[in-house]
Amino acid sequence: MAWLILLAAGLLEVVWAYAMKRSAGFTELVPSVVTVAAALGSFVLLAFAMRSLPLGTAYTVWTGIGAVGAFLLGILMLGESASPLRIAAAALIVSGLVLMKLSGEA
Question: Membrane-crossing residues (predicted)?
């Protein structure tokens, strides 16, 4: 269950990052509210996941989901570059997340 909670926390991190981009420096009301709500939800879910997952594992996976998710959303929704080097970097992050999960901690 902790892994599912952590996944949800990571997905909310992607939501708040995208909403923050859309908030134009917190000058747009709706994206600003979404940013704050999603960030709060993400932190709360991360805290719940950390009840049974090691700090290093939980935090690494949480930030990795956020980083790769924001990277993909940037490409798909914002027209950001999908250069081979950026894709390789994202693949390395995903590889690290897989290794972290396979490490057997928790």
Answer: 33-50, 57-79, 85-102
